[in-house]
Specification:
This protein has 508 residues and is of the alpha/beta class. Helices cover 32% and strands 19% of the residues. It is globular.
Amino acid sequence: MSGGPPSAQGLAASGLSTLNGDILGELTSHIHGEDALNLALTSRRLYDFAIHRVAVILVCRTRADLICLHRHLLSGEPKRAIYLRSLTILNTTFIERPWQEDPNWIFPKNTYEYSLATLLGDILEDAHNLTHLLLEHAAPLLQHDPRIAPAVASMRKLVRLKLCDIDANILPVFTNLRSRPQVLYVSPVTVDTPAETKRVLNIVWEILTAMSSVQELRAIDLDLKGISDLPEPTAAHISLPQVRYLSVHWWHPQFDVAKTFPNLEVFEQHVNSTQLRRSPKQPLRRLSVAEIHTFEASRQPVHFLHLRRYPRELRSFRRTVYEASPVGIALHCFIDTPVWLKYWFQLPRAAPRLRFMDVHCHTWERRHEHGWANKFVQSLRRYALVCLRIVAPQPPSFESLDSAWHEDDMQTFAELPDRVMQAIPTLRYIAWAPKRRAPGGHVDDYAWYEDEYDCAPANYTWYRVEMDESSGARTLKAITASQGERVRRFLLDSDLDAITNIDDHLRL
């Protein structure tokens, strides 16, 4: 007889095993992957409920992955594919020769081979319960296995559908689609001539008109480089009032955004500049663009303005901010030049409604005058901000040719949260990070990355500004990252009055 006490895992498993089947089924529906596997291995009864959740979310990256998935998902009775909820098939699955091995060393390209597309067809025919599907290189996959299109069209539970590199063969998927997805992403194949461009644009437009159930149009990505004269699409003025969220990587100049999407709330434009030909009927909740040339209509408020790159010309940028009149703004900026410091002093007058900011700070000068960091902090005194989230600039490395920062400037950034609190009387929350977080998690990876509302993902330290009852002095109290995220979601979702009086509406 064993003398040791039962393990915590064993006690938890024995407790769960006493629950009825309906409750166990509901509990296990919220786990997947390693968590589901660990639970399944605790007892025979829990195994029956949890084992099918192990392979609920799958990402296929290589040919070997696809072969293994095919073997696993099509085994058992019923086949395990029916438990699959999310499937991503990346283009790397079908690479035959990577670009590094291409003998054409001047313009190397990957070489793809799609003979294993039939394995994907087998999986999709049995994966009836998918809610999320992403297929890269959709056009050649549909060409090599005609079963893929009707298999996708027959699915009834798709919520997110992302199809990259599509051509005319994709149209039967949408004309026969039984699902009513809320999020759609379509990316056409690369085209080389104006005639092909017009054909591809019309295919995209036919898809949009067929998708009357789309509530969030996630993205339209058109790779049309090298074509100077873009033909006008046949149906350029159709209205899609059901769409609330639009994200595009390219947009045809003949498409009137406001007229095509009259109820748009969020507009993201990732590449090139954009010109809103007229303002939407209702104010946008979020506008995320590389650069805006102008609003042709009268001043139209935007709740959150996200600028994805440095402004080219500060005067027009201030005009853009004035016309958008944002409550929140996210931007990249320089903080060490006289021109930019002048801009920081002028911004509050251009945006009187401004209550929260995300600032990714950069430096331009190679030799800094003593006190430049404090000048930036002092420029914030005119702001009526409730929350400021800031990524500090990086000091020169030992290998850099730039001169080292003065000790006082280094100290300013070391004490940045306290210095900013003292400069902005209305401030209630501040988050700061010494550097941006790289997308791959590697500190040396300088690739720029932004998510749908963030100019600089980073490991922020959050503080709440509190009043000391005895002395009346303002102090900083650290809060958790999850509490900071609640603050951020409140700022994005609330109106100006609630944000201004945040203490009356938000309790952490």
